[in-house]
Amino acid sequence: MPEPLPLPALHASHAGTWLRDANGNTRGASKGEAVMAVADTPQLILNAPLVANRLGYPDLSGLDLLELFAFIHPAKFAVPTPRGLAHALGLAEPESDDGVPAFLQLAAGHLLATCESEDWAEREGAWSTLQSLVRLRWPWAQILGPHIRRPERAEKWLFARLPEWEETPERAQPGHALIEEPEVEARLERLTGEGAERREGQRRYAREAGKVFAPRDRRDVPHLLLAQAGTGIGKTLGYLAPASLWAERSGGTVWVSTFTKNLQRQLRQESARAWPPTRLDGSRPVVVRKGRENYLCLLNLEDALQGGFAGRPAVLAQLVARWAAFSQDGDMIGGDLPGWLGPLFRKRGIAALTDQRGECVYAGCPHYRKCFIEHAARASAQADLVIANHALVMVNAARGRDHAQRPTRVVFDEGHHVFEAADSTFAAALTGAEAIELRRWIVGPEKSHKGRRRGLAARLADVASYDEAGGTAIEAAVEAAHSLPSEGWLQRLNEGVPAGPLEALLGAVRAVTYARDESGGQEAGYGIETEAAGLDGPVVELAGQAAGALSAIRSPLLRLGGRLEAILADPPDWLDAQGRARIEGARHSLGWRCDLLAAWEALLDRLGGPGDPEFVDWLAVDRNEAREFDIGLHRHWLDPMKPFAKVVLEPAHGVMLTSATLKDSEDWDAAIARSGATHLDTSALLSEAESPFDYANRAEVLIVTDIRKGDIPALAGAYGRIIEACGGGVLGLFTAIRRMRAVHGRIADRLARSGLPLYAQHVDPIDTGTLVDIFRDDPTASLLGTDALRDGVDVPGHSLRCVVLEQVPWPRPTILHRARRAAAAESGGGGNAYDDRIIRARLAQAFGRLIRSRDDAGHFVVLSPAFPSRLLSAFPSGTPVIRLTLEEALQRLANSVFAKPDGADATASPLEG
């Protein structure tokens, strides 16, 4: 057993604070004493931002074991708690809070001993990175120095070690393979494994899924299947069975699209049953694809390593470089980069290392052939299965660079989210933040800005020097882009001195929105909005001037796109393959920015005139707490499934939408409308498979009737007592961040002193994915959150045994919701019925967090004095529903027949994905 590191250690939780000196003495301490100790001597700590939050001392720094772990074990998963770190290192976990400081000393000693071990798998590059970290005065650098030996040969730089992608021939069009139902069943039986329970629901589901892979009969009319599959059916393997069979027979690619990163991880694991990790030629049959903003940009990383970052962000860049050498695919958001690493450095360092602004220079980048994004894109072109997300599939269909790679066989898992993904993808927002990003892309760095950002002129300098018309177009675009908002625009609007036509318009939008606000200041911390109708003459005139400025930008960009096409059609001698790829990339970027400008112009042209019935337009001021952060005009399709059907469905040959909550409990009408099927010249196939779980005996819905709405003390008291009655394992869902924070602040300390840790979104400085990891890892922990935790959270077993809703999740009465509600009423569906469908879907999604495997059991609690009976159909048939007081509910929870012994756990079987 390695020796503990003899350095002082500090642990702070809601239950208290403990200090341990280098001689091994542990004592309780006040927050003030802990802050003084940290100021005097660097302390061993775990998760500095969280400890700082507990102590109320934001400037806390020390020897964070998470940073040490990230250096020694890059691309390795660990839950960022004492318990989680103990499991990752194979050590005994501390039994109580006062034992954590001693554990931190032991864990530090263990990690340092790893560096001296011959078995250290991540040794390569460590010594070189450490020298850079010494220069950056990283607190761990001097301690690590004696434990990492200098290699006999100089280590290669990261960018020399990364593998390059290779060109591959274009894949042939898929063959028209016919797959029969018996073949689908046989493949499913192979995937579920020998001896697995034969489930007729899953077999029927797989047979239905196979129908979308049949050859298409008519152009622009795909096979469309809507498949409701209750939790536990095993839908993942149900659709992978026919998908793998079709890909094998046809030589084509199937895209599976998800809404949550959690399901993407699950799909990657499940796909191993159908495909090997690599083919004989080394290529990958299964590839995960995400948007560019998820991947590490090597050019941004190089800039950061060479001085673009300073101070703590520079340390982050070095740790990310360590990770990049061992990462599976360079995915920084939801991939194998620990989600807790970025928040340790507080600033947006992770985002700065990705391509957030669409500034990629493609083949002009010196790391182009090693680029993680290009690796994924090329691998997906040759893959049998591409695991993506809804937004990427829609964007790729709308403006993908390569038509041959656009999805033609798509399974939309978590299909109930397709509508909202389309709503976001096909919307337009002319805001200050969006406009300033366009200016940066065209103009490039201004004033004292550092970093690698380059404007249009710098990115296409060779084109400008070769083609006079192209150079003139670039100059005109850059000149016109100076009319867009620039740094400090919000401050100028506050001072009443806007610069340029766009800022003047945004100032008028702000004034109109505040003038029409009817909240009376009651919602001062939240955004406000108003309809883009009935605007006076001066506002309309400003909109016209702004539209003219946008047109002046779009015209030269269109001319430049034409010149780039001409160069590709009649290439000069100096245009090699790399240059051609770079110009193709520039054409693609120009194209979608011209489309963006055209959408903005259409939005402005509508102001002052009659509205377009297909769109909903409004003005908004976005605020967080009491601070404004954006202002603008917004346009959404009244029915976003209309462009979805045109762009995604019509070019496809087979599409499946599937979910456990796809249809409303009463009928299919809403599901059909929200799938885009009504905009196709065909009828959708419908399939329904009920969950095999025994909800009648494994779950209860408790509707607590004596917690008055708006009574925060009573609400907090109810949550605290419910968590105590359950002994933790509670997922609390809120409809407002403000109420969630108020509840957390009232009960967290008391619960922690009882050994029941409580975590919360928007309170703890931890990303949502990591919060769920912590919750899943500790059966005594509870977690509070908002919408992001209502869907896509998969916590099977004893760690989640009770879900609590603070109230009925009513739709927020926005302008967009009001318009869609009115449209539903006009079509005969009724406005109240429209709201009820939304609420039932939210309740069903929240209830779905509770029972994830056949052995799961628990309670679903709604704190609502007047829960409408018409909403009860949201819960699975047979589930007991009981209206009762809080005291009665607490008795049922404390004496629950669902209680499991400590340490019991149930994990989902492969059939239940």
Describe this protein's structure.
The protein is an alpha/beta fold. It is 43% helix and 12% strand. The strands form five sheets. It has a seven-stranded parallel beta sheet with strand order 8-9-7-10-15-6-16, sandwiched between helices. It has a seven-stranded parallel beta sheet with strand order 19-20-18-21-22-17-23, sandwiched between helices. Helix 2 links the parallel strand 4 and strand 5. Helix 13 packs antiparallel against helix 14 and helix 19 runs antiparallel to helix 22.
How is this structure best summarized?
The protein is α/β, with parallel strands linked by helices. The chain is built from 35 helices and 23 strands. The two termini are 40 Å apart.
The largest β sheet comes out as: 7 strands, parallel
Q: Which geometry do the CA atoms define? A: globular
Sheet-strand content, in percent, reads 5-15%
- Secondary structural class: alpha/beta
Kindly state the mean pLDDT as a whole number? 90
Count of individual beta strands: 23
Poorly predicted sequence stretches spanning 5 or more consecutive residues = 901-913
N-to-C CA distance: 40 Å
- Rg for CA atoms: 29 Å
> Order of strands across the biggest sheet?
8-9-7-10-15-6-16
Helix content: 40-55%
Tally of individual helices: 35
